[in-house]
């Protein structure tokens, strides 16, 4: 007699008259394996039982098995169609539910499936995309070294294409969206694109906030671009924004040895104006001087 496998279980599940009856062989497969040996389910087995439970709206059982599937995702991954079926079983899905789903896909590393899901949502006139959906995708795409939704290496300003995509989808581009993009660009060392994005914000009716400038300033200081950071500091002080304490400390360390007395005085005045130096920073500055 051949060993009872996931293939046999999938066939058995299809023969059951309903989801309740199908739960029994799924939970306790008739296997001849040694006691304590876990049964190796296939993604097809999960697809069948979860879909049956979803259609029947047996949510507690469905959620329990779905949780097991997500925990086992190191060797099997849920399919996009299955997750869409789960969402649909709860009612007409909203942007929040799609955002949660895309976040889960991104955390599992399946960024391509998340992007496909975003494209599917775009085609649904009843779903209004919000900035959280784009922020979730952008963070994931930058994390794996991808250029937003566009793979054309000839396009140095793919982020602007993303902003246009958000606009066309009826999604308001807010400061959180811009800050998310700035973080990604700064991590990639794309200063020119980041600078253009910062300049683009007011033209799109979105004013940079203190977080925006801190992202830009801190990243420049961490990368050793102190001359450029000095120019950003001017604009921050003009607006009454203070750099972060860490950013100010790194800036002082990087610029003090190259600066003359007059430029040092100017730097100190600007940092004092926005209360950007802690007592430890003053002690360090005196030591370096």
UniProtKB/TrEMBL annotation:
<keyword id="KW-0809">Transit peptide</keyword>
<dbReference type="Pfam" id="PF13041">
    <property type="entry name" value="PPR_2"/>
</dbReference>
<dbReference type="InterPro" id="IPR002885">
    <property type="entry name" value="PPR_rpt"/>
</dbReference>
<keyword id="KW-0677">Repeat</keyword>
<feature type="repeat" description="PPR">
    <location>
        <begin position="209"/>
        <end position="243"/>
    </location>
</feature>
<dbReference type="InterPro" id="IPR011990">
    <property type="entry name" value="TPR-like_helical_dom_sf"/>
</dbReference>
<dbReference type="GO" id="GO:0003729">
    <property type="term" value="F:mRNA binding"/>
</dbReference>
<dbReference type="Pfam" id="PF12854">
    <property type="entry name" value="PPR_1"/>
</dbReference>
<feature type="repeat" description="PPR">
    <location>
        <begin position="174"/>
        <end position="208"/>
    </location>
</feature>
<feature type="repeat" description="PPR">
    <location>
        <begin position="94"/>
        <end position="124"/>
    </location>
</feature>
<protein>
    <recommendedName>
        <fullName>Pentatricopeptide repeat-containing protein</fullName>
    </recommendedName>
</protein>
<comment type="similarity">
    <text>Belongs to the PPR family. P subfamily.</text>
</comment>
């Amino acid at each position: 007699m051949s060993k009872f496998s996931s293939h046999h279980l999938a066939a058995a599940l299809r023969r059951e008259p309903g989801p309740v009856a199908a739960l029994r062989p799924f939970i306790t497969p008739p296997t001849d394996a040694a006691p304590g040996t876990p049964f190796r389910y296939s993604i097809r087995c999960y697809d069948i039982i979860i879909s049956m439970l979803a259609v029947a709206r047996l949510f507690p059982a469905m959620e329990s098995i779905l949780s097991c599937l997500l925990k086992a995702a190191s060797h099997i991954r849920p399919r996009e169609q299955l997750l869409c079926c789960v969402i649909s079983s709860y009612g007409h899905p909203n942007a929040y539910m799609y955002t949660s789903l895309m976040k889960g896909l991104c955390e599992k590393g399946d960024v391509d499936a998340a992007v496909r899901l975003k494209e599917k949502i775009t085609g649904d006139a009843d779903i209004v995309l919000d900035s959280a959906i784009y922020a979730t995708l952008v963070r994931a795409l930058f994390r794996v070294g991808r250029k937003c939704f566009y793979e054309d290496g000839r396009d140095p300003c793919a982020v602007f294409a993303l902003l246009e995509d958000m606009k066309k989808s009826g999604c308001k581009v807010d400061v959180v969206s811009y800050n998310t993009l700035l973080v990604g660009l700064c991590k990639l060392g794309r200063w020119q694109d980041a600078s253009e994005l910062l300049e683009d914000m007011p033209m799109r009716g979105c004013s940079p906030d203190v977080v925006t400038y801190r992202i830009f300033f801190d990243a420049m200081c961490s990368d050793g671009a102190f001359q450029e950071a000095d120019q950003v500091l001017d604009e921050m002080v003009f607006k009454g924004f203070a750099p972060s304490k860490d950013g100010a400390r790194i800036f002082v360390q990087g610029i003090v040895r190259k600066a003359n007395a007059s430029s040092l005085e100017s730097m100190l005045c600007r940092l004092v104006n926005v209360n950007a130096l802690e007592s430890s920073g003053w002690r360090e500055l005196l030591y370096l001087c």
